[in-house]
Specification:
Layout lengths: L2 H9 L6 E3 L4 E5 L5 H8 L4 E4 L4 E5 L2 H9 L4 H11 L6 H13 L3 E5 L4 E6 L2 H8 L4 H4 L2 E4 L2 E5 L3 H10 L5 E2 L27 H11 L8 E5 L6 H12 L3 E5 L2 H14 L7 E4 L9 E5 H4 L22 E5 L6 H7 L6 E6 L9 H7 L3 E4 L2 H6 L6 E8 L3 H9 L2 H9 L3 H12 L5 E4 L3 H10 L4 E2 L5 H12 L5 E4 L14 E4 L7 H9 L9 E8 L3 H15 L3 E6 L2 H5 L1
Parallel strand pairs: 5-9, 10-15, 10-16, 11-13, 11-14, 12-13, 14-15, 17-22, 17-23, 18-20, 18-21, 19-20, 21-22
Antiparallel strand pairs: 1-2, 2-4, 3-4, 5-6, 6-8, 7-8
Helix pairs in contact: 3-5, 8-14, 9-10, 16-17
Amino acid sequence: MAYMEIYIILMSMQDKPIIVQSDGGILLEVQSPEYGNARDAILPFAELIKSPEYIHTYRITPLSIWNAAAMGVACEDVQKSLEAYSRYEIPEGVLFRIRDAFSRWDAVRLTARDERTLLVEVRTPEIFSQLTAKPGIKEAVLEVTGARSFVIGRDMRGRFKHLLIKAGFPAHDLVGFDQGDPLGVDLRETTSSGVPFGLRQYQVDAGKNFWAGGSVSGGQGIVVLPCGAGKTVVGIHAMAQARMQTLILCTNVSAVRQWIAELLDKTTLDPGDIGEYTGSRKEIRPVTVTTYQMLTYRRDKRGPFEHMQIMSARNWGLLIYDEVHVVPAPVFRATTEIQAKRRLGLTATLIREDGLEEDAFSLVGPKCYDVPWKELEQKGFIAEAHCYEIRLPLPPEKEMEYALAGDRHQFRIASENVNKDRVMKGIMRKHGDEPVLVIGQYVSQLKRISETFDAPLITGSTPNSRRDTLYGAFRRGEIPVLVVSKVANFAIDLPDASVAIQVSGTFGSRQEEAQRLGRILRPKKRVSTFYTLVSRGTSEEEFAHKRQIFLAEQGYRYTIEEWSAHDVHA
């Protein structure tokens, strides 16, 4: 059923704005006078799944309940919130699953015992028997101290939490954290460039929720904010609260240097306090910024991770995981060994294509702050965006080659469709006075576009110094069009880009769409425009549909336009 049809049905019914479905889904009517109150009531325990114009869809899951419980929400609070705003009786099966999820939170509690061991206390003998019979957990037990308690080694803290959540019992970790070596860091009231600087209220709230007053229940968690909403500032705010030496993990070298620039611009840190640990520099300082690629580098598949020792190179008090949704599995495994450090994850989406959301919860921490994209757009904190999918034909000479090709080659033929170049000319003409970012997957295609439009190209092989030069020129308006590969997906701050043209992608990845849209969502006076060029009648169209769903779910206007052969050759 279309959302407009659902909306019409809802409008003809009662005033209460939500419907709780038997699968744990929640439909929330946006036009209801009670929308704001209902949204605020359910947001702590339900995950926002879709947010188109009329009906928002949330879902209650064990993970969403555990996130709520970790922030102090009680089972009774959830039931009261649902009853207060639900149009119909809440399905009993949903209430049972909510109670069951709450019963599993704090069913297993970790506390400090001595310098080498931790005490594990289990709520009931039945859960005790269930857990201690499981492989991995059974071997971790050093000593049984009662009918509901046992001892594990401190070095097992992370691995034990990981095993527990896989068994359906998230650990309530009350062990606390190492202090880490001290570091004096404060936020500036005026940036180094002379611009007044202050935290936005949602950034203050995000930092407050993460830090939790420095208690044993704080200092671990994930902040979810849209691209362009200032997640880096939230990280800097956390550093100012912790006032301890900090290790920052990023997606690429450009992101490392942007973090360093932000730290120097907005904090009282001196350049000598900040180290860059990348392929070209190996500086370990009170604040060290590195990449996930450095941590996971090894000479061969069986060799050691040569730079992983940076995790223990200093007495870090805080670890910051930028774009936590793409943390490689080996870094998660390393995180199991450093649970005594405070950990902050930053991301625009908790969705992981590898399905490791539970790993992020257990090894980095529960979600401690979230705000919908459209809410920040409406308040002017991120740009308004219009999204278009333009469908165009394959050249006649490619149609037979496409028909005879295998699946992956078909996708590439569709992606590299030369007709896209002609469509781009029309788009650039329409947005003649706006900076344009062209984003794609295949380097051969991007080289062709770069030559056709006489536009600089950045790929994975472009030296970092060259990338920084081109990004800077684009920000200053010296380059009107910049062509980039997937290296632009993560943590590249291009605040003046208002038009993005996606010419090829990676099979409809939701992560990728969030990041690419984020390149043009920095606050600006003009509306941002996001184009996706798709070869009609090909597998690319199928994958584009997945991207369309993601954008529509986030509440963005999505228009599909057909580009005829006459238009293409005009």
